[in-house]
Write a structure and sequence with these properties.
It is a single chain. The protein has helices at about 5-15, 25-65. By secondary structure, it is mainly alpha-helical. Helix 1 crosses helix 2. The longest helix is centred in the middle third of the chain and has 42 residues, at about 25-65. The N and C termini lie far apart (about 60 Å). Keywords: Membrane, Transmembrane, Transmembrane helix.
């Protein structure tokens, strides 16, 4: 279990425990799962954003070197 999972479980437990309805164990499970999802999603989002920026930059470079591809020409 990683530090991120433990922190997520603690935060989820605290949020669920504040309602006072039942035990905060289910909140700890939800927090741990959410922490792992976020831990996996952030690198994927950063990779996607980096790839998009590189492709956009390459497209602009191509337009500068070869000229813009205008429709109807």
């Amino acid at each position: 279990m990683s530090f991120t999972t433990i922190i997520g479980a603690a935060i989820g437990s605290a949020i669920d425990g504040s309602s006072g309805d039942d035990s905060s164990v289910d909140g700890a499970f939800t927090g741990a799962i959410a922490a792992n999802v976020v831990k996996a999603a952030i690198p994927l989002a950063l990779t996607f954003a980096t790839g998009w920026l590189v492709l956009r930059g390459l497209g602009k470079l191509k337009d500068q070197v070869l000229g813009a591809d205008l429709p109807g020409r």
